[in-house]
Each structure stands twice: as structure tokens, then as C-alpha cells.
């Protein structure tokens, strides 16, 4: 079949990673795939690039390391589907909205996706999508157009793949009439690397989007304030939103400065910055890389955006995921899958680490903000103590070659078996063409 993967506005996030891996699975089954995106001009965006060196300072999350095959204007999207001869259209998630707004109008006052899917159905072209979060995250008040999308029953089987536990979620809007079938995320392991940093087992890292609910500031605080034997460096790696207020990476940097760290923030220092504030560079909104050193503690670094998550994780021995686990999958999300693929020993919330994987499982349910973490209220201190213990356990395994080899070999086999892109793709197609 010819399968069109429709992602109108690709940006660096898990959805883009899903597209890359599911495409491998579909092509592995012998299908031809094309990734279609939309821009106002119909021309490729300058932010679709793998050159992260030009993106760290200004682009934040608004870039895509996966370059679409084709770009069209909104009005050309459906015509392209017909011209290319698509046998199936896959939308990566039902709550995705058009980049020009939720109510881009073709010939009716409805969101663009619903307009597109209606026309697919009229022309007998099947379509499907995938559910990536808990059903409650798609409630009408949060994603008001999901229900409208799922009403486009022509061409839609009424059965969807779900990357979260579906027990007890039946008859919940907007999926009242939809059958959800759970599945781990598709993941294609990276080629093995011959080179390995000799001192990676003394390093800890956290990867993925930098935002408070992902917990990067909590790892930085633990590294700065608690005893973690044998660690020489802690890396925070990933993209972050750029807005008008202080950037999240800057808030972490400022927190560490307040703890007495010697700070070095890259980028141009503005001429009018008073001497006592020159450590900030005079710019608190952008996200240049930085390093902080505290006496008797590991160096803490923000390294910025990256293209290859696995290669990034190969620079450290222990990978930490501190995503507040109100977002529950009971499977393993991509930042941790990449760390497992890289041979890291992992620390992650129990709900975000698949049951078959071996790692240090932490209890972390609610975000402890940058402001709160330094106050160490009793309930927060208990959570932090648990994280420190699990991180210490992971370091003990990582720094013991025999123990490390057993854990990493087991995780590699689970990753190959349970997250096979071809198996997930086959399940997706079976649901699409069966009623």
C-alpha cells in the first residue's frame, strides 16, 4: 500500500519520534510511506533541519529534526492525497490541530482535520489515528475537536491503537463508540556503537523536552545538594520553549547560582549588563548551553538541543526520567527507550517504565516546582529522598561491570521483542482494516 503520514506541523516531541519509528515498521512490512506537512507558503520550513547548532538559542521546541518528504499549503493537502494515490492516511494523534489555528476553513466552519477526514471518507480512502495519552486528556474541554474528528466514520474502522492501559476506559467521551487496543510504542534500536566513553559510568543525564513537569530542575538540585558517590557530571539535554518570560533552563541556572555555584552561560553578554548580573549574560529568555560548578559536587550542564537521542545517552551511564507521572502510560516513553537502547541504567517513575524492563523505579506523581524544591517541605523531602535512593541504587549497578552487563543485555532483548516497529505497525493496520 501507499501510506501517507500526515503531520501538518512537525516539531521536536514524542509524536515526531513515533512517526519515524512507525514508518520503519510500515516500510518493513513492504509498504511505501510519505510524510506530508503543511506550511502557509507550501514550501519547506527552514526549521526542518538536523543542524541543531543554529537552533539552540532561538527556536526552542519549534523545530523538527525529521524532515517531511512533501510540504503543501492547507488548501492543497487533500488534492495531494489524491495525486499521490494514498491507500491509507495516518494522523499521528487525534488532538493535533492545524498550525494556522483550529478553525482553518476550507468550505465549512469546521477544524481542518475534520474537513480533511470527511473528504477522505467520501472518496473511500481509509484513515486512522493513534491515542497517546490517557482518555481524560482528550476530554472535550481540553481537546474539543477530538470528538468531531472521530465522528468522521466514513473510512474509519472505529478501532484505534492506544499507547496506554485501556482497562476501565470504555464508554468515556470522546471515545464512547471507539474500541481502544493497547500497545507499546514502536521502537527501532539504533546501530551498535564501537566507541564508548571510558568515564560514562560516572555520569548521569536526563533527556527530552525541558519543562517543569519533566523534572530536570529536580535532578539538578539533587546533584547540587545531596551526596551521590562517584558522579563527575550531570547533563540536562533537550529543547525548551522560548517565550517572553524567564526560560526554564535559566530558572535552573539561577537556582544553582543561588546555591553558590560558579556559573558559565554561553552566548553574548550585553554591554549594558551591570557587573553583578553579568553571570546571566543579560538574557534570561533564550536557552544557550551553560555549566555550573559547586565545590565538592559534580559539574552540572545544560547542553541544549540534540538530534540523536541514543548518541546523546551514550555519553552517560545512568539516565533519569522524572516526568510527573500523572501522565501514565504503563509503557516506556521515548526518552527512556533511547536510554535503554544506549545501554544506560535507568531511573524512572514506575508508571513510565514497562513492566518487563529492569531499572530503578521511583514514585513521583506531582511536579515539585523550581520554587518549591529549594524549600524542601516535608512531603517534598520524602519524595526527594526516594529519588536519591533509587539514583544511588542505579549508580551501584552502572559502576559494577558484571551487574551492568546483565541488566543492559536483558533490557536490549525486551526492547527488541516488545517494541518491534513491524509488530506495532501490523497491529495498527489490522485495527484499521477490521471492524
Could you explain how this protein is built, in words?
With 435 residues, the chain is of the alpha/beta class. The protein folds into two domains: 198 residues, 3-Layer(aba) Sandwich (Rossmann fold), CATH 3.40.50; 218 residues, Rossmann fold (3-Layer(aba) Sandwich). It is 30% helix and 15% strand. It has twelve helices and 15 strands. The strands form two sheets. An eight-stranded mixed beta sheet has the order 10-11-12-9-8-13-14-15, with helices on both faces. Helix 5 packs parallel to helix 6. 43% of the residues are buried. About 3% of the residues have low confidence.
CATH topology of the largest domain: Rossmann fold
- For CATH, the homologous superfamily of the largest domain is named as Glycogen Phosphorylase B
* Total count of strands: 15
CATH architectural group of the largest domain = 3-Layer(aba) Sandwich
Distance between the termini: 19 Å
Q: Work out the radius of gyration.
A: 23 Å
Look at the structure and give the CATH class of the largest domain.
Alpha Beta
Helical fraction: 25-40%
Features of this protein?
Rossmann fold; 435 residues; 2 domains; seven-stranded parallel sheet; alpha/beta; globular; 15 strands; eight-stranded mixed sheet
Question: What does the secondary structure layout of this molecule look like, with pairings?
Answer:
Elements: E1 2-6, H1 14-28, E2 32-38, E3 70-72, H2 77-84, E4 88-91, H3 112-122, E5 127-131, H4 146-150, E6 159-162, E7 179-182, E8 203-207, H5 216-225, E9 233-237, H6 248-258, E10 262-265, E11 290-293, E12 299-304, H7 309-313, E13 318-320, H8 334-341, E14 345-349, E15 360-362, H9 370-375, H10 378-398, H11 401-418, H12 421-432
Parallel strand pairs: 1-2, 1-4, 2-3, 4-5, 5-6, 6-7, 8-9, 8-13, 9-12, 13-14, 14-15
Antiparallel strand pairs: 10-11, 11-12
Amino acid at each position: 500500500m501507499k501510506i501517507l503520514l500526515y503531520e501538518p506541523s512537525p516539531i521536536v516531541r514524542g509524536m515526531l519520534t513515533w512517526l519515524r519509528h512507525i514508518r520503519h515498521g510500515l516500510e518493513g512490512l513492504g509498504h511505501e510511506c510519505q510524510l506530508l506537512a503543511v506550511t502557509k507558503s507550501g514550501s519547506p520550513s527552514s526549521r526542518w533541519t538536523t543542524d541543531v547548532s543554529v537552533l539552540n538559542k532561538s527556536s526552542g521546541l519549534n523545530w523538527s529534526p525529521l524532515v517531511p518528504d512533501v510540504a503543501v499549503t492547507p488548501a492543497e493537502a487533500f488534492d495531494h492525497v489524491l495525486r499521490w494515490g494514498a491507500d491509507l492516511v495516518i494522523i499521528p494523534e487525534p488532538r493535533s490541530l492545524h498550525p494556522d489555528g483550529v478553525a482553518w476553513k476550507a468550505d465549512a466552519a469546521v477544524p481542518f482535520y475534520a474537513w480533511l477526514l470527511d473528504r477522505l471518507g467520501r472518496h473511500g480512502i481509509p484513515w486512522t489515528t493513534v491515542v497517546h495519552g490517557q482518555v481524560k486528556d482528550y476530554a472535550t474541554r481540553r481537546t474539543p475537536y477530538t470528538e468531531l474528528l472521530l465522528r468522521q466514520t466514513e473510512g474509519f474502522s472505529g478501532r484505534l491503537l492506544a499507547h496506554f492501559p485501556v482497562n476501565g476506559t470504555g464508554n468515556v467521551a470522546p471515545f464512547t463508540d471507539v474500541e481502544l487496543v493497547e500497545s507499546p510504542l514502536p521502537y527501532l534500536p539504533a546501530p551498535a556503537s564501537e566507541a564508548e566513553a571510558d568515564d560514562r559510568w560516572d555520569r548521569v543525564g536526563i533527556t527530552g523536552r525541558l519543562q517543569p513537569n519533566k523534572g530536570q530542575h529536580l535532578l539538578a538540585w539533587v546533584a547540587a545538594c545531596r551526596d551521590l558517590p562517584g558522579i563527575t557530571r550531570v547533563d540536562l539535554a533537550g529543547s525548551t520553549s522560548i517565550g517572553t518570560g524567564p526560560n526554564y533552563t535559566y530558572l535552573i541556572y539561577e537556582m544553582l547560582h543561588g546555591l553558590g555555584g560558579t556559573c558559565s552561560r554561553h552566548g553574548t553578554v550585553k554591554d549594558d549588563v551591570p557587573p553583578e548580573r553579568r553571570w546571566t549574560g543579560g538574557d534570561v529568555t533564550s536557552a544557550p548551553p551553560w555549566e555550573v560548578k559547586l565545590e565538592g559536587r559534580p559539574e552540572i550542564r545544560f547542553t541544549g538541543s540534540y538530534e540523536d537521542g541514543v548518541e546523546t545517552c551514550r555519553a552517560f551511564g545512568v539516565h533519569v526520567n522524572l516526568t510527573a507521572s500523572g501522565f501514565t502510560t504503563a509503557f516506556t516513553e521515548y526518552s527512556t527507550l533511547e536510554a535503554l537502547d544506549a545501554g544506560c541504567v535507568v531511573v524512572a517513575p514506575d508508571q513510565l517504565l514497562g513492566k518487563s524492563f529492569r531499572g530503578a523505579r521511583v514514585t513521583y506523581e506531582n511536579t515539585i516546582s523550581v520554587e518549591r524544591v529549594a524549600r524542601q517541605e516535608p512531603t517534598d523531602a520524602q519524595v526527594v529522598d526516594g529519588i536519591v535512593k533509587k539514583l544511588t541504587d542505579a549508580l551501584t549497578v552502572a559502576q559494577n561491570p558484571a551487574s551492568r552487563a546483565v541488566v543492559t543485555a536483558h533490557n536490549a532483548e525486551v526492547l527488541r521483542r516488545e517494541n518491534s516497529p513491524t509488530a506495532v505497525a501490523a497491529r495498527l493496520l489490522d485495527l484499521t482494516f477490521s471492524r
